[in-house]
Design brief:
Blueprint lengths: L1 E8 L3 H12 L8 E5 L9 E6 L9 E5 L1 E5 L4 E5 L4 E6 H12 L5 E5 L2 E7 L2 E6 L3 E9 L14 E13 L8 E6 L8 E10 L2 E10 L5 H15 L5 E14 L6 E2 L2 E3 L15 H16 L13 H15 L5 H10 L3 H8 L5 H8 L4 H12 L1
Helix pairs in contact: 1-2, 1-4, 5-9
C-alpha cells in the first residue's frame, strides 16, 4: 500500500486551490503528497464568477472583470457601479492549467487519474480506495461527495442548473465594460429563472440561462430559453455558438460535515456552496486559506463555523424554505434585495461578511409576514 503524508482527493476548484496554497508556503517540499481525480481536467467545463475588493490568489487567470453590473426585471432595468468590488470571471480550463502547471514543479506531488470508491479512517490516518488501488495517508483533504445527503426536517435540496453559450455576433451587440448579473425578464413558469451575460468584446459574450428548481430540464428547453433571450433582449439573430457549458449546483441547507477523523472535507462536500445563491469560489478560497494556516500552526485542519457565523446558514435556510414551498417567486426576492438596498451591502451580505445591524436593514425590505413565518419554521 502506498503511503502519503497528504492525499488531496479531487482536482476541482477546492483541491487545486488548497494544494497551490499549501505548496506556495515553501514548507512542504519534503512531504509526499498525492493528488487524485477521475478527470484529467483538460476541458473548459465550467466558469467561476465572483466579486472581491482586492487582488486574489488567482488574478493571473481572471479572464475578464467588470465594475458595472445590470440587474433587470420587468419593472426595473438598472446599472450598478459595484466599486470597490470587482466582478471577476475565471474559465475552468485556465484555472486547471495554471494550477497543474504550478503543482507539477514539485516532484514530491504525485498526480493520478482514478475513480475514488471509498475513504475511511484507520488507526494511524486514513485510507482511500480506487478501482484496484489502496492509498494510505496521515490526512486526506477531500472535495469528493461519495454519498447523497439524507435530508432531515427543515432541510431542503434545490438545484441551480444552467446552460451557457459563448456566442459571436455579427453586429456590435455588447458593451464589454458592463455585465448582466441577473435578468429576470424570462419566463418564471418552471422555477426562479434568469439570464446572466458576461461580455468579452462588442461581438463576443457568455450568455447563461439559469434556473432554481427541484429538477433539471431537457437540453432543448435550455436551448429554447437561450435563443429566446438572445433574440428578444439582445436583439440579434446573427450569431454563432462558439462554446457551450452545462452545470448543476446544489442549493441545500443540509449541514455537510467539516471533517471525519483524519478526513477534512472541502468545497461543496464541505459545505462551501452558498445555499441561497450557489456561489462557491470565494468561500473555497477562504476555507482553503484557513486550512493551510491551521496546518502551519500544527493544529488539526478543521474549520468549524462559529455560533455567530451560523446565522448565515439560518438566513439561507429561510430563503430555501420560501423557494421550496413556493411562498414567493425568487425573482421578487432577489430584485427586492438589490433594488431596495445598496448593492455593496448586498454583495457583502452574500459573502457572509456583514454585521448583524447591516443584516437587519437588508432583510427587512422583504415581505415581512412571509419571511417571518419561514424564519419561525426554521427554528422549530
Amino acid at each position: 500500500m502506498n503511503r502519503f503524508h497528504y492525499i488531496v482527493a479531487g482536482a476541482g476548484c477546492a483541491g487545486l486551490s488548497f494544494l497551490v496554497r499549501l505548496l506556495q508556503t515553501g514548507q512542504f517540499s519534503d512531504k509526499k503528497i498525492l493528488l487524485i481525480d477521475h478527470s484529467l481536467k483538460n476541458a473548459n467545463d465550467r466558469t467561476w464568477c465572483f466579486w472581491e475588493k482586492t487582488p486574489g490568489l488567482f488574478d493571473a487567470v481572471v479572464y475578464k472583470q467588470w465594475q458595472h453590473l445590470w440587474l433587470c426585471d420587468h419593472a426595473h432595468v438598472r446599472l450598478y457601479d459595484i466599486a470597490p468590488y470587482t466582478y471577476k470571471m475565471i474559465r475552468g480550463i485556465d484555472f486547471y492549467q495554471y494550477c497543474l502547471e504550478f503543482i507539477r514543479k514539485y516532484p514530491n506531488v504525485i498526480i493520478e487519474q482514478a475513480t475514488i470508491q471509498r475513504m475511511e479512517n484507520t488507526h494511524n490516518g486514513a485510507v482511500l480506495e480506487t478501482n484496484g488501488q489502496l492509498y494510505e495517508a496521515d490526512h486526506i483533504f477531500s472535495s469528493i461527495l461519495l454519498q447523497k445527503p439524507v435530508l432531515k426536517k427543515g432541510q431542503y435540496h434545490l438545484l441551480q442548473h444552467f446552460k451557457g453559450w459563448v456566442i459571436e455576433t455579427q453586429e456590435a451587440v455588447f458593451n464589454p465594460a458592463e455585465a448582466t448579473l441577473m435578468d429576470f425578464r424570462v419566463s418564471q413558469e418552471q422555477g426562479t429563472a434568469f439570464v446572466y451575460v458576461m461580455p468579452f468584446t462588442p461581438h463576443r459574450a457568455l450568455v447563461e440561462y439559469t434556473l432554481f428548481s427541484d429538477s433539471t430540464l431537457r437540453s432543448e428547453e435550455y436551448d429554447a430559453g437561450l435563443k429566446n433571450y438572445i433574440h428578444t433582449f439582445l436583439n440579434t439573430s446573427n450569431y454563432t455558438v462558439q462554446e457551450e457549458e452545462f452545470g448543476v449546483i446544489p442549493m441545500t441547507n443540509y449541514r455537510f460535515p467539516s471533517s471525519d477523523g483524519a478526513i477534512t472535507y472541502m468545497g461543496t462536500a464541505g459545505g462551501q456552496t452558498k445555499a441561497s445563491s450557489g456561489y462557491t469560489f470565494q468561500f473555497i478560497q477562504k476555507q482553503t486559506a484557513q486550512l493551510v494556516d491551521a496546518i502551519l500552526r500544527n493544529v488539526k485542519p478543521v474549520i468549524d463555523t462559529s455560533l455567530l457565523q451560523r446565522r448565515f446558514h439560518w438566513y439561507d435556510s429561510i430563503l430555501l424554505n420560501v423557494l421550496a414551498k413556493n411562498k414567493l417567486p425568487g425573482a421578487v426576492i432577489f430584485t427586492t434585495l438589490f433594488n431596495k438596498n445598496e448593492i455593496r451591502d448586498v454583495l457583502q451580505f452574500l459573502d457572509n461578511e456583514t454585521s448583524l445591524l447591516q443584516e437587519i436593514k437588508i432583510i427587512t425590505v422583504l415581505p415581512k409576514r412571509i419571511f417571518l413565518r419561514a424564519a419561525l419554521e426554521q427554528l422549530t
